[in-house]
Amino acid sequence: KQEVTQIPAALSVPEGENLVLNCSFTDSAIYNLQWFRQDPGKGLTSLLLIQSSQREQTSGRLNASLDKSSGRSTLYIAASQPGDSATYLCATIQGHSGAGSYQLTFGKGTKLSVIP
Amino acid sequence: GAVVSQHPSRVICKSGTSVKIECRSLDFQATTMFWYRQFPKQSLMLMATSNEGSKATYEQGVEKDKFLINHASLTLSTLTVTSAHPEDSSFYICSATLGKGAQGYTFGSGTRLTVV
User: How far, in Å, CA of B114 to CA of B24, rounded?
Assistant: First the structure.
């Protein structure tokens, strides 16, 4: 059974700093990996999707890397802003034979606070 | 981009009553929709996978008679919490995907259910 771990559980940084969020997973047989952002009491917003054949994806100030063989992914946020404060979740996408579809397995998230 | 609408965002109901939550894909046809439950400070737990025109596939430990899922069209899935109890109070989130989910997921904004 896939297990996804995110470290640290919480992180507080001053505005303007660059930061890295870590995600590790036990089963490297993933199809893709997706990073999400969740604001308090809200749903999930997709940030980046990395296909298993890719090593990284970039969107604006965000860069996500994937090392499938070692079971690791990182999310790099450049020049952090207070508006980046949220919980960041990573999820692996794998086949799910029971439902005939692919399935996400989530980590517990990293709660990021960017201090003005 | 793909948008998933979820309603209501908040609902309070009395014990013993039923509550229906709707999940709509607004600009794409979702052959597969997923329902998640999230406890405070925990990650998302998959409850069931809903395929259009067929019965939902429930995860182990999820009562299918308690959580009724209907996916009557390619743009709408509903979750009905029947005979609600206070322990059903939680945050419920749906997601939808094109195809079987290999290319990423789009999430609704979530529903906060409080059973009194």
Answer: 22
- Whether the pLDDT of residue A100 is over 70: the answer is no
Q: What backbone phi and psi angles, to 5 degrees, belong to A99?
A: -100, -5
CB contact under 8 A, A103 and B46: yes
Closest CA of chain A from B16, distance in Å: 25
* Cβ contact, residue pair A109, B110, below 8 Å: no
Q: Quick check: A107 contacting B, CB < 8 Å? A: yes
Per-residue model confidence as pLDDT tens digits over B57-112 = 999 999 999 999 998 888 999 999 999 999 999 999 999 987 666 678 899 999 99
A109 touches B at CB < 8 Å: yes
Q: How far apart are CA A109 and CA B98, in angstroms?
A: 25
pLDDT at A55: 93
Q: Which of B46, B95, B112 sits opposite A41 (nearest CB)?
A: B112
What is the band of B2 on the pLDDT scale with cuts at 50, 70, 90? confident
* CB burial readout A12-41, b (16+ within 10 A) else e: ebeeeeebebebbbeeeebbbbbbbbbeee
